[in-house]
Amino acid sequence: MKTLHSEWIKLRSLRSTWLTLACLFVVGLGITALAANATGDIWAEATAADRQVWDPTGHSLTAYIVAQLIVGVLGILVVTSEFATGLMSTTLTATPRRTRVLAAKVALAAVVALVAGEALMFGAFLIGQPLISRQGVPSAALGDPGVLKAVLAGGLYLAAIGLLAVGLGALLRATAGALATLVGIVFLVPALAGLFPSWLRGIFDFWPTLGGAAALNVVPDPDYPHPWVNLAGMCLAVAGVLVAAFLVFRRRDVV
Amino acid sequence: MSMIDVRGLTKRYGPATVVDDLSFTVEPGQVTGFLGPNGAGKSTTMRMIIGLVAPDRGTVTVGGRRYRELPVPLLEVGALLDAGAVHGGRTAHDHLLALAVSNGLPRTRVGEVLSRTGMESVAAKRAGSFSLGMRQRLGIAAALLGDPRVLIFDEPVNGLDPEGIRWVRDLMRSLAAEGRAVLVSSHLMSEMAQTADHLIVIGRGRLIADTTISELTRTSGAGTVLVRAGDPGGLTRRLTEAGATVHEGLESSLIVAGISAGDIGKLAAFHGIVLSELTPQRASLEDAFMALTRDSVEFQGVAA
Q1: Which domain does A189 fall in, by range?
Q2: Phi and psi (nearest 5°) for B17?
Q3: Domain B224-280 has CATH 3.30.70
Q4: A162 and which of A75, B58, B183, B226 could share a cystine (Cβ 3.0–4.6 Å)?
């Protein structure tokens, strides 16, 4: 508890924490507004089949794509800023039980990422839907079937990315390396899927960040019929990364 | 009881043995200087004492316990490892507050250590704007937070101006006078000569000397005598016959080894040689240190 309180003081006393969070909301909600305003044209050109699977909820939550990077930066910095400045030596001198230090960082990042992620996703939905409906395009309400679940999934997804970022930060210790790895996991590997030999493509059915993000849709993605299973699988993969991070963090010399 | 007990400590990084079977103790109520050339293994040893680096062999205890087992570490040990070990975006006050809270220390301690280190006026400033000297003070303030019985300072005067150096020196003396154990590393013998009571000298990770300042000067300075004589050639012959070694010094002086000043005087009187100077030489601490560590430094040069 003392360790957690100390980590909270460290997090809140940095201006960069608040700037990153402000950036998350400005960028996230800005993208939502832009995307919602573009729906009029999309709807006008849409075929009957497209209109059949129109998903206003999923459309208003697309800001998660950029938001996950900003949440990732926040999670990474919780660990790597201490390695970069040498502060980790001071922290571990005051609290030599390293598991406790990393656990406090993980818990704090989880809470911050979950609260910020849910707030962003609800904000995006509530800003996006009126803008979509103003274009004369069918919109959704929180009470509609499956909508609340999809919005909540958005916050959970961002929290999981935040934890993945903490794990990568502890494993790689350098901000640039951890961020590059995170970008690779969420953007590059899925984007390069077509280059992989066909026998390897099966893994993309299970690639955590692809299936997990499908839970943000109300109209099911035919590729991922059970997105919550994928989201759970993604959390499992993140937990795996965190276990590795704890093992390494406990053992490695701090120089 | 020894406050820090280092036994058979060994650390390897790949093929290099950085600390090699090192044993020493640090006693309360005195400043123990931890001395060695750059790269001798001082920082690695200090990091092993506080559990940041795991030894390959050997043990370290602080107050009889392993560092990781201390219930409230800051109450036992305060360490200044690296003045840069502060996040530049955080204020001095918040940096200290986070540390105090992590060990359950009262918040009032933050103000107390800020005033003891003369940092009150910059408490609300971000550490990134601090000069090296102010960072050192902040690091020392952090070390003093828990009012610990053991203090560990790694090169605390590096980069300080003369006033800062004097302040650190006086602080270490007063901390020792309060009965605390103070371990302070340096690669400068002259600095230690003015601060330390006891000396641990290491080179290439091995213990070279575990001694007091006065003992070190006495043992390493013994043996040579500076002599000026009316007939240097004659005296040199007589001295050599008597088994001494004679070298020519500056301004027609002689540097004599292997015979005491008293015996030189008797010898000169017996042969009727007039002496104008007869001075036993005390090597400076710096010379003593250089002599002690010469082998290890040379070896490093070859290896590099």
Answers
A1: 2-251
A2: -95, 110
A3: yes
A4: A75
B304 — pLDDT class (breaks 50, 70, 90): very low
* Cα distances (angstroms) measured from residue B42 to each of A93, B47, B48, B205, B212: 17, 9, 10, 8, 18
Q: Going edge to edge, which strands form the sheet with B198-203?
A: B77-80, B150-154, B181-186, B31-35, B198-203, B206-212
Cα dihedral B8, B14, B16, B19 in deg (nearest 10): -20
Query: Under an 8 A CB cutoff, do B47 and A90 touch?
Result: no
Q: Name the band, by pLDDT with cuts 50, 70 and 90, for residue B303.
A: very low
CB contact under 8 A, B86 and A2: no
Sign of the CA dihedral running B128, B130, B131, B136:
negative
The C-alpha atoms of residue B21 and residue B58 are separated, in whole angstroms, by 7
- In chain B, whose CA is at the least distance from the CA of A86? B85
CB contact under 8 A, B54 and A251: yes
Distance between CA atoms of residues B87 and B130, nearest Å:
11
With an 8 Å Cβ cutoff, are B50 and A94 in contact? no
Give the Cα-Cα-Cα angle B100, B103, B108 (nearest 5 degrees). Answer: 35
Could you tell me the residue ranges of all domains in chain B? 4-218, 224-280
Residues of B in contact with A3 (CB under 8 A): 102
User: Which residues of B lie inside 8 Å of A (Cβ-Cβ)?
Assistant: 44, 47, 50-54, 67-68, 70, 73-74, 77, 79, 81-82, 84-91, 94-95, 97-99, 101-104, 142
Do A13 and B91 make contact, defined as CB atoms within 8 angstroms? yes
Hey, what CATH class is B4-218 in?
Answer: alpha beta
Contact residues, chain A, for B77 at CB < 8 Å: 93
Same-fold call for B4-218 versus B224-280: no
Total domains in chain A come to: 1
A254 reaches B (C-beta below 8 A): yes
pLDDT digits (tens, 9 = 90+) for A172-197: 999 999 999 999 988 887 777 777 77
- Look at A85 and B50 and tell me if their CB atoms are within 8 Å: no
